[in-house]
Design a protein that fits this description.
7-stranded mixed β-sheet, alpha/beta, about 45% helix, about 280 residues, single chain, Chemotaxis Receptor Methyltransferase Cher, domain 1, Rossmann fold, globular
């Protein structure tokens, strides 16, 4: 068996660094995963050992970004957790629209958005299933900490697995066949979603996002510890407009994290609401 890339002390220093910058906690059980990615980054930067690499990591924002990209998980596909999309069009948006006038803005945020499938799924679902979509100015924003994933999202090129759950008619309407069994999202759809970088545990940077009426934050809090979950929950609460809704992954529950949200049970999904109502 080969020697570990990092000593026990170096492993602790690196995982503490990642925790401070991402909220994700990596431990000894992830040793092989960590060693492999750090070795790749050391090779890419020409660093002969970890102390030299760690010095680069702390002083170079671009290398920090590259390392964070190497540790993020981008497992997603179109129409994932479709029941929440049904809840969005049947319950959440009609409720929000009841206090708006035609032409008013409704903002929806997918964070993290990974390579774009979930943010684009929202756009496609609304075009297909919410008859009032053209009556309002619906703005969809996708954000992620992984800049490579964001580049892929903007490109809008997807493999067979990503589009496998889409009805054939939907796939034909919004995608064009591309080389190597890939599908290219049409330009109109790609232009309907805005992508930017965001870190869920960095409240000050998130303030630039403004307020949202609906936030999809699915299957990321499971990678955080209790302290990071609470930080992220408070940041998400601050980014919700009063009366806005938060959708988590099906294995996640805000009730175990924060008492600031009201739990709302609809036929299709359980979601979490910021109390109050915008004027």
């Amino acid at each position: 068996m080969s020697e570990p890339v990092l000593s026990a002390d170096e492993l602790e220093r690196l995982t503490d660094f990642l925790y401070r910058h991402t909220g994700m906690r990596f431990g000894q059980s992830k040793r092989y995963y960590i060693d492999r990615r750090v070795a790749d980054r050391m090779s890419a930067t020409g660093c002969p050992n970890f102390p030299v690499y760690f010095g680069v990591l702390r002083s170079d924002d671009r290398e920090r970004e590259a390392l964070v990209n190497a540790f993020t998980v981008n497992e997603t596909y179109f129409y994932r957790e479709e029941h929440q999309l049904a809840c969005l069009s049947r319950d959440l948006l009609p409720d929000l629209a009841s206090t708006r006038r035609p032409g008013d803005k409704i903002r929806i945020w997918s964070a993290p958005c990974s390579t774009g499938e979930e943010a684009y799924s929202i756009a496609i679902w609304l075009l297909e299933n919410w008859r009032m979509v053209d009556a309002y100015n619906v703005e969809i924003v996708g954000s992620d900490i992984d800049t490579r994933a964001l580049d892929d999202a903007r490109t809008g090129l997807y493999g067979e697995r990503a589009v496998a759950r889409l009805p054939e008619g939907v796939r034909q309407s919004y995608f064009e066949p591309a080389k190597r069994r890939h599908w290219q999202l049409i330009d109109d759809l790609r232009e309907s979603v805005t992508f930017n970088q965001a870190n869920l545990v960095d409240g000050p940077s998130l303030a630039n996002q403004g307020a949202f009426d609906v936030i999809f934050c699915r299957n990321v809090l499971i990678y955080f510890d209790d302290a990071s979950r609470l930080t992220a929950a408070n940041n998400l609460y601050d980014r919700l407009a009063p009366g806005g809704y938060l959708c988590l992954g099906h294995t996640e529950s805000m009730n175990r994290i924060s008492e600031r949200f009201a739990t709302r049970r609809f036929n299709d999904a359980i979601v979490y609401q910021r109390p109050g109502r915008a004027a």
